[in-house]
Amino acid sequence: MSTGPTHAMSGLTAWATVTALTPDNALGQLSTKGWLVGAVLAAGAALLPDLDHPESTVSSTFGPVSQAGSKLINTISHGVYRLTRTKRDSNRDGGHRGLTHTLFFAVLATVVTTAIIQTSRSWALPVLMFFFCGLAVRGIMHKWCPRNDALWITGTALLLTYACLKWTDQTDANAAACGLAVGIGCVAHYLGDAITEQGCPILWPVPIAWKTWYPVAPPKVFRMRTGGRVEMAFVGPLLTVVAVWMSLIALRNTGALPMLRDVPLTWWGQG
Ligand SMILES: [Zn+2]
Questions:
Q1: Where in the sequence is the domain holding 196, given as residue range(s)?
Q2: Nearest-angstrom CA–CA distance, 220 and 203
Q3: What residues flank ion ligand 1 with Cβ within 5 A?
Q4: Residue 271: inside a domain, yes or no?
Q5: What is the 88 CA–ligand 1 centroid distance (Å)?
């Protein structure tokens, strides 16, 4: 895995890029408030797949509650891995970097999030916002925050959720856009994992080279060490620059930032 801050930033970058580069479809035509809700969801969802690892920092986000959830996810993931692996797949436990690290899971998370928000906007959106805010805060602050400081994280997530929903009109959030934001965040996580040593079984259960859990990864020279110099000095800052740039374009498309109306932010048309 990449480090928490890189994962969270990659979720935001992916959301900003998709919304900035598709101004003509529904995702590119969100309101400013809807876009911001999506940005929070995507940044948090970029940490979601690692809930399959009970020892991971993100699993301690909400203390014993998320740790218990993490153990359950790990057990399910382990079961699915052992049941569906072929002889060619590595003989590993499969609890971590299993089911939650596949496109199948990203689609599932998209559909479930959309369905939950469609069922009830009044309670579901605040609950989901709180959950993903917590993951995002935990991801960004995983270094200097004591490992068991779940109360602190919970408090910050509650405050952030309150602030977001106080400012965003709850009825404004588009359920499908929220679902897609979560899916986009998950996919950003997979890409971040794929460029580290072990690769990521994104395409399960499609068999590649007789492996259903084929670890998708670029050639070795393009891979980096988690928390290594390449990630800290290059990938992290680059993601941040792209996130800011794409967010400016996307926010301008939503009608916010009128002062940037004439600033050439793009070279491909609407700039
Ligand atoms: Zn991961």
A1: 4-260
A2: 19
A3: 1, 49-50, 193
A4: no
A5: 22
